[in-house]
Structure formats: structure tokens, C-alpha cells
Amino acid sequence: MSANKLSDIKYSVLDLATVVAGSTPADSFKKSMDVAQLAEKVGYTRYWFAEHHNMMNVASSATAVLIGYIAGGTSKIRVGSGGIMLPNHAPLIVAEQFGTLASLYPGRIDLGLGRAPGTDQTTALAIRGENFNAAHNFPRDIVKLQTYFSADNATSKVRAIPGEGLDIPIWVLGSSTDSAKVAAAMGLPYAFASHFAPTYFKEAIQIYRDNFKPSEYLQKPYVMACVNVVAADTDGEAEYLSTSVKQFFMGVVTGKRQLLPPPVKSMDSIWNVFEEEAVMQMLAYSFIGGPERIRAELGAFAQETGINEVMATSHIFDHQSRMYSYKVFADVIRNTNFAPLNIDL
């Protein structure tokens, strides 16, 4: 592993189409388009949506539909899934959906795949029906997708039309060491969910690199880390804005989800010491601050982990502040000396 400088890494966006208090999913989708168009202007590589279900504050359940919406409103940024939860879908349907997207937006579609349900067990049962107890083999289903996308499948009795013969990069997503082994064995790029499951991040990427087998898709390991980002002009402003994401994760920890709330001056009256510890453990890989703090912390993170790409997710209540956070983050990575990007919000 070679240590990477900030200027060596690509930077991207993970969007959950988060629904903020006082708004609707329709509002979230419009805001996602704003962020995606800004991200394209300031050099982000890709814009991914995550598949989640039955969460009042997350509206990215119909992931493929949102990918098409964002790809249609942009021109060059890659758009994809971070990820499609494969046990919820027949591989053929995924191949057809992403084959359609890649036909509409050639050279711009990514297919990130996860092995979790992206929801609770009751909702997973509603999604899968009689298939709920069926054995799901994640590597085998990935191979099925690769087969459907292959031009060699043209003589098969079951074909993905559209999809067959198209170049649609497949990524393995994960939050554990199991996914690292799958990505390594299959020679695929690996994206780790360190934005909410930081515990096994370093161990997983080491396993991935140590066991990576070159493939027709990828010759050497490629690691992307997803992290939480709240960037502002000052550390104090960023800390204030970050109380929204802390409350968001409080909902995860306590099971009492709510629409993304506005920031507060202090979290002291909102969480107890145990809840604070649990939330901050989940937020271990978060970059919260002004440009200088983020540059220092992100630079150290890139050097220590040798990541090839960082994917930022930003749960920020105010839309303009969220847009500005993505601007600052891009500038920190692109420039040696911080200077505000001259792009209108």
C-alpha cells in the first residue's frame, strides 16, 4: 500500500435523498439534483444513491429511478448505486434496469452491490415475499450479473435486453471483512461503508489488498471509503451544523427515527452519555470543520489508509449550507491553498 496525498484521490458523493423536517421526498429529489449539478461543476467523480426501505428520513428506496433522474440532469458525472441490495432483487431485473440506464447514459453508470437488506427484517419480508427464506449467494449473484452483461450471453435462453454487451462497472460494497474477501476474490473495486460502520474498515481493506486477484475488470486493488462530511468556513460553524447528523444517528441508535432536524447549539439535552458514545463511534470517520481542519484530518486519513477515492455523505439541514459544504470539500482536495470556489449557489 502506498500512502496517498489528497491530490491523488478522487472524490465523490453518496446521497440518501435525506428528508429534512418540514419537507417532503419531492423536495429532497430537487435538492439532490442541485447537489449533483454542483458536484459535476467542481470535479466530483461520481454521484451514488443508497437503497434503503421503510425509513421516514431516507427517500432513496427506488434507487434506479433516482439514478436515471440525476443522470438526465447532468452530463458527465458518473451516477450509480451505493448500493443496490442484491438479495432484494433478481439479478436479471437488476441487469435490465442498469442496462437501460447505461443505454440512456453510456459510459456514466456504476453498479454498486450490497448483500444486506437495507432495512429491517419485517420490511425485508414484505420485499422478498416467499423468497425471504431462500438462500442468497452474494458472489454467485454477482457472477450472474456479469454473465448477463457479457456479450457471450447472446446464445443463452435468458438474456438481459438491454444490458447485454454493455460496460457497466460492478463494485462490491461492504461494512465487514466478508465483503472484502468477495471483492478481492472477484477482482472488483471495493467501497466500504465507513460512514456508519467504521469498526472493521482498516481490517477489511487490508484483507482486500492482501487477497486481491487481478481480473479482466481490475488489475490492482481499488478502495473507496465513504465518510461523513460537514464543511463550513469555520470549525465552529461546522460543529453547529453537524448536530443534525448527530441527531440523525441518534435515531439509528435508539430506533426513534425522525426527519432530519435543524441544528442545535448543544446536544447535551438530547443525548445521554451512552447514546453519545454510540453515535460518536458510528461517526468515527467524519470530517467536520473549516477548510484547514478538514485538509489536515483528511490528508492524514488518506496517507494512513492509502484510499484511492473518498465518497462524502452530508446530512446537513440547510440546503445552501449542504451545497457549500460540498464546495469546500472539493476545494480542500483540489487545491493546496484554500480559496472559496467561485461558483454561484
Short recap of the structure:
Helices cover 41% and strands 14% of the residues. By secondary structure, it is an alpha/beta fold.
Description:
The chain has an 8-stranded parallel beta barrel, surrounded by 8 helices. It has helices spanning 25-41, 63-72, 91-104, 121-128, 138-149, 177-186, 201-211, 235-241, 243-254, 273-282, 291-305, 319-334, and strands spanning 10-15, 46-49, 78-85, 109-114, 170-174, 190-192, 223-231, 286-289, 309-313. The chain is globular and about 65 Å long. The chain has one domain (6-334): Luciferase-like domain (TIM Barrel, Alpha-Beta Barrel), CATH 3.20.20. With 345 residues, it is α/β, with parallel strands linked by helices. Residues 336-343 have low confidence and may be disordered. α1 (25-41) runs parallel beside α12, α3 (91-104) packs across α5 and α11 crosses α12 (319-334). The chain starts with 9 loop residues before the first strand and ends in an 11-residue tail after the last helix. InterPro entries: Bact_Lucif_Oxidored, CmoO-like, Luciferase-like_dom, Luciferase-like_sf. This is Luciferase-like monooxygenase. Pfam families: Bac_luciferase. One of its GO terms (molecular function) is oxidoreductase activity, acting on paired donors, with incorporation or reduction of molecular oxygen.
